[in-house]
Amino acid sequence: LWRKAVEIHSMLEQVAPGGNQPSWARMGFADSRYQQFCTDDLDRSISISVDSPAYAEKVKNSRSLLCYLNCLLWLCVAQPAVRWKLRQVGFMKLHLAFSLRESEIVRVMLSTVRNLVDSPVAQQSQELMRFFGEACLSLLHEATHHAHHTSARGGKLSFPMDQVWLLLDTLSVMSLQRGLQELFTKHRIVETLSHLAHKFEDPQKLAKLEVQSLYIAAQVAILPSNRLSWVCSDTLLHANMTQREKDWKTGKSETPLWTPESLYPDRGAFKAKLKEMANLPSTGDETLRTVSSLLLAVFEEGRTGHSTDDVTTRTLRPIYQWWQANSTARYMEYKDADENQRPEPLRRSLCQLLEDAYRRQAAKEALTCMETMRYCAPYESLTALALFSRLALEKDFKGFLSHQDVLEALLGSVCAGIWPEAREAAATLANLMWMNYDAFHGGRLVCWLKFDGAKSLFVDAANVLLPMQVGDPKGVELGKGMYKSTWGITFTQGTFLRLHPDGIQTHQVPGTLTTASVCDSLKAASKLPYKFLRNHTEPSPRNFTLTCWFYWDANE
């Protein structure tokens, strides 16, 4: 059925006006397949004219069939147990639905993609997420630039408004993924959204667009390589392999490889806009004020010139209290209170949240971002946790973040929060395990999380630390490696791996935050050391940092 739908679509594209028409179409002859298409479905003896309503209806139905089949196949591809079977059978051209432009078809397509990318099972496949990300970026570019482009406000949109909102919802959900944050950075999505704003005249629609755009920009901005000048990514690594790097390594140049001017979005203009939004009057949009204030706090990172106690009291504690009340881990509490018409939700203990997590796992249920937005603030919560995970590495802030109520809230987020928030909460807990108190004699353990599938080359590269191979070590047999899989190496006579070909300072933290992008290798992560907020917390060369990478299934 899919093969037939693809053939009909290809044929209709060829005979369409302006299409790449084959020779028989240009000469006025009818191919047998096209001739059969131009007949009545019930009575093949009745021909249908190409300018008749019946022909238009057949074309519409064939495109609807292609769209629905394509969406069904996307749902199947997201399932790991089915994906390899589809590849083995030979399903191809799963991108065709994105070439259709009928309003109803685009609405069905975007609705399917939005719900699919919001599910943990799809988020485990980086290739699938990137496929959807690139396709939606293409649609955004088309909606903004291709048709009736003008720099003056009020230019005509090439997409209906309901489709624009669907597209922005989809991109917002995608922006929660580390790999897609890098993709959006590469395509300068913030500038594209700014151009899109020039198409709006209605103040209400413009305000809605600003909220959606800020959601996306905020998630892109908190990507470690976008917000910290000393964090290197593979993208930056490949772009800066020049004489400048050699000079910096040998001490001939004191200019860092990545400067604040290279951060994305442009820090000066972006912070100015955030301050403007954060100071909106009380009658303005509360979401804009909240997200802007959180982002400004993330950029400041406790460096306000005040003492640690002042930073904790004025910044960290209020943000924690706000996050605790708006975390997606409390979704079921708010939903239960709403359904039972209770004025206040009943707080669930950590044990109850853990029981709910086991129940959802057994039932294969997963909480989604779009589902929680009615009662919670998923995008704002991730921004707050990005600050916590950074400060959790700092000695001065470990005391506050190690309080029992804070730890229980973080563990509750891992149990009951949506997948991206659980990721950031786990990152904060992992950073808190870095023991750098004097009471522990300076012992240091840093646990770096790598969230991806066992078969990903990125994760495999991280597990073996980009080795230089000597001899011919063999991979372990299926089921005998790490995680009961194939991760690991069997060493034979005369073989070994040199784990750190470029050398590494064992007392320093690799220069990336805990939730490293799945697109980055340890080579990029260890390019520059972690930059401490206060010099007195610098580690001693006598201490040792152990860097661990492990796999966490998004469904668990």
Point out poorly predicted stretches. 147-156, 437-467
Distance between the termini: 36 Å
Q: Profile the largest sheet.
A: 2 strands, parallel
Helix/strand-derived category reads mainly alpha
Strand content: under 5%
Gross geometry: globular
Overall mean pLDDT: 77
Radius of gyration: 27 Å
Explain how this protein is built.
The protein is mainly α. It is built from 27 helices and 6 strands. It has helices at 2-15, 23-26, 32-37, 53-77, 80-89, 103-117, 120-123, 126-146, 161-174, 178-186, 189-197, 203-221, 224-227, 234-239, 243-250, 267-278, 286-300, 308-326, 331-339, 350-363, 369-372, 378-391, 395-401, 404-416, 419-432, 457-463, 522-525, and strands at residues 446-447, 468-470, 474-475, 489-490, 496-498, 547-548. A two-stranded parallel ribbon has the order 1-6. The chain is globular and about 85 Å long. It starts with a helix and ends in an 8-residue tail after the last strand.
Compact overview of the structure:
This protein is mainly alpha-helical. The chain has helices at 2-15, 23-26, 32-37, 53-77, 80-89, 103-117, 120-123, 126-146, 161-174, 178-186, 189-197, 203-221, 224-227, 234-239, 243-250, 267-278, 286-300, 308-326, 331-339, 350-363, 369-372, 378-391, 395-401, 404-416, 419-432, 457-463, 522-525; strands at 446-447, 468-470, 474-475, 489-490, 496-498, 547-548. The protein starts with a helix and ends in an 8-residue tail after the last strand.
